[in-house]
Amino acid sequence: MAEAKQLSGAGLRGQVAGETALCTVGKSGAGLTYRGYDIADLAEKAQFEEIAYLLLRGKLPNRQELDAYTKKLQSLRGLPAALKTVLEQIPKDAHPMDVMRTGCSMLGNLETEEDFSEQDDKIDRMLAVFPSIITYWYRFAHEGVRIETESDVDSIGGHFLELLHGKKPSELHERVMNVSLILYAEHEFNASTFTARVCASTLSDIHSCVTGAIGSLRGPLHGGANEAAMALIQKFKTPEEAEEGLMGMLERKEKIMGFGHAIYKESDPRNAIIKQWSKKLAEEVGDTVLYPVSERCEAVMWREKKLFCNADFFHASAYHFMGIPTELFTPIFVMSRVSGWTAHVKEQRENNRIIRPSADYTGPADAKWVPIEERP
Ligand SMILES: CC(=O)SCCNC(=O)CCNC(=O)[C@H](O)C(C)(C)COP(=O)(O)OP(=O)(O)OC[C@H]1O[C@@H](n2cnc3c(N)ncnc32)[C@H](O)[C@@H]1OP(=O)(O)O
Ligand SMILES: O=C([O-])CC(=O)C(=O)O
């Protein structure tokens, strides 16, 4: 009993809450695999669309299947007029994660999943249309333009960059987006995925599962950390300033966003990968501040606390170097993780039992009813 109390108070850490064939996190040392494939291999060799197919259809596609899948996703990028109308009502100072949440929910009103047999089509639609939703709103709210959301760029990452910047992305930028979407696609029973699975376990619809997951991802302890990491590194003009600043924050026991992890203990395997791309982008833009500052933060956190960068930390500088506004960082995470969330929803539906754990009661016992006139 005492042990259960301690565990539930500690974020359910270490408790097995179900089964999955989708992903292992930290199972052999610091590793991460999607359906048995190592993340380093996938990030080097795959297309994000291939990874979405792997997660959602259970196997790597052959050439024909990948081409057909990419084409299908390309054909699903358009926004319904009623969704555009809703997006145009959302104020400029709204957080883009709230826009994603509303966009997803509205899509659920317009293109409701009536039956689970429709799940694959609904999922593909979300994968294809999320970049359109966020960039349509962003450019309308900030520039007053109504963008065309179709584009002939094949990849989801390239599509997002083209809509955001109004021009075709460079090969390098499209490649980095592809890697980033692969790295963020799936991560076992993280908070947002667990949210989606809990929702799915009530036999709710796919848009409700994803809308809930977006809300869960938004927080700075989870997906929101990539934006918080950007805010941190932008405070410093030199590595020396960063070191001094971090030492002060650690002394004041402040959380440093983009560091630490609930499962990994020594490193997050996604960090080395995105860090290398951030370095390439820093060279491309001639950066002499943000990348060295980020590296110094990494060194200080390891030296002082044995805390390592998680997937979010070097994503901040990488996205920044590609001209992506900070407030769009976490929505990119959504564009990717929707593949993992919905693969988990499918898995949950295949072998469902409502998720309903127990709690240790810590409130008063035998409370006696007091009429309202007699209450202090
Ligand atoms: C893609 C992702 O979602 S990755 C996670 C993104 N989130 C962040 O980057 C936010 C910053 N990091 C954190 O808040 C945490 O490390 C989490 C939420 C990721 C994991 O939380 P937990 O599993 O509870 O952390 P853990 O038990 O390992 O913490 C151990 C100790 O290190 C401290 N610690 C952990 N991370 C940090 C950090 N980033 N900065 C400062 N101290 C930290 C904790 O406060 C705790 O100290 P204490 O023992 O004195 O209380
Ligand atoms: O696994 C976690 O707790 C958080 C994380 O890194 C992710 O969701 O990618």
Describe this structure in words.
The protein is an all-alpha fold. The protein has two domains: 23-219 and 326-350, Citrate Synthase, domain 1; 225-322, Cytochrome p450-Terp, domain 2. Helix content is 58%, strand content 2%. It contains 17 helices and three strands. Strands 1-2-3 form a three-stranded antiparallel beta sheet. Strand 1 (23-25) and strand 2 form a beta hairpin. Helix 13 (239-251) packs parallel to helix 15 (290-305). The longest helix has 25 residues, at 119-143. It is globular. The two termini are 35 Å apart. Acetyl coenzyme *A is lined by residues 11, 221-223, 225, 255-262, 307, 310-312. GO terms for molecular function: 2-methylcitrate synthase activity; citrate synthase activity. One of its GO terms (cellular component) is cytoplasm. Keywords: Acyltransferase, Transferase, Tricarboxylic acid cycle. InterPro entries: 2-MeCitrate/Citrate_synth_II, Citrate_synth-like_lrg_a-sub, Citrate_synth-like_sm_a-sub, Citrate_synthase, Citrate_synthase_AS, Citrate_synthase_bac-typ, Citrate_synthase_sf. One of its GO terms (biological process) is tricarboxylic acid cycle.
Secondary structure blueprint with pairings:
Blueprint: H1 2-9, E1 23-25, E2 32-34, E3 37-38, H2 39-45, H3 48-57, H4 63-74, H5 81-89, H6 96-110, H7 119-143, H8 156-165, H9 171-184, H10 191-201, H11 206-217, H12 225-233, H13 239-251, H14 269-285, H15 290-305, H16 313-321, H17 329-350
Antiparallel strand pairs: 1-2, 2-3
Helix pairs in contact: 2-9, 3-17, 5-6, 5-7, 6-7, 6-11, 7-8, 7-17, 8-9, 9-14, 9-17, 10-11, 10-17, 11-17, 12-16, 13-15, 14-16
Bound molecules: acetyl coenzyme *A and oxaloacetate ion.
Residues 11, 221-223, 225, 255-262, 307, 310-312 line the site of acetyl coenzyme *A (ACO).
